[in-house]
């Protein structure tokens, strides 16, 4: 064999080897691409939006984790005109649970689909579970307009509220049990606002009014009885009915005003091992009350436990003008503090006559409970006491972007044996502006206009000289 033939065979062998290697590499790339595309979007797509538009909250993840029935979502959108924000979020839901799936349906190709679901139209998302369904409108549910900005400035600004809408709808279509909360009436109680009612509705809770004087008893279908900031004490007969209800394993939520004397209601709470801490709570830690507001307008620490499992991480609860709660160790009830002040707070005992909130030498200092849960495992009774009359008011809820409503929903769900409440803040559509401090503008200008160009010229000249000498 001459050298020419040997060289040709070697070249052919190398060529075949290179071709085979290229095929293997190409097949590997295709296989990796298929595997990556099959992975849920949360593992392949990163949410770099400033407001975390596509990052599922703990509330949503808890609900999807509990999901044990199949839910089908239909996104009604014309092909080529889909909203990428909506499709990406639906992908995240589908990736978080094998029981959730979604499909796009073009209204042109499926003209009768929208007719099957009342209120559905182009842009809507329909969630279907068995014979239940919920329709989410494009404007109003998936995107919420800032009413305040429109009212004051005449501009239409929208936030991305799709996660709250989807999670609330998901909770509604998958709930198999319904619950009924009765608001006690007849003592000047504060009725729950629409924001609290919507939260409870998402948790499958229906709210009715109850006047014990006229009704004479607590209805048998009562899952929770709410006493929300009464302006007068319950009567002795009403207290007896409430006491019997609790002793029989009932669920009671009491929101009280410490400036009013309510010995009959206090007696029911005392039977559950909870009494008042005399005085008005005052914070000294700036992180526990709003900036520029009175230190009696509390932003207490929110406990992380089973009772508040539905609370979204980082959400606050606003409790302006509150009093502490003392739990008795020798009670038949197990107590869990839900909202607590900082360790540096104090209880102003002479608040009724004090001209300022200045601490007196005799005022107790420490961490005080603003809300406490009591549970009797023997009877099944669950009682929650919030010693702040403003906790379940719309103004307080708006100050925390729904935190107070979610707090209520979590408590009611705990009373009902549930753990998920759907209240998720809308995500801002605006990117945070990058601002450069005035003092750095000159320095950055000199750096980019003069220093860097000169450095590049010098480096280029050095490279040219080195190459010429070679």
UniProtKB/TrEMBL annotation:
The keyword Membrane applies. The chain crosses the membrane at residues 12-36, 438-466. Keywords: Membrane, Transmembrane, Transmembrane helix. This is GldG family protein. It comes from Candidatus Gemmiger excrementipullorum.
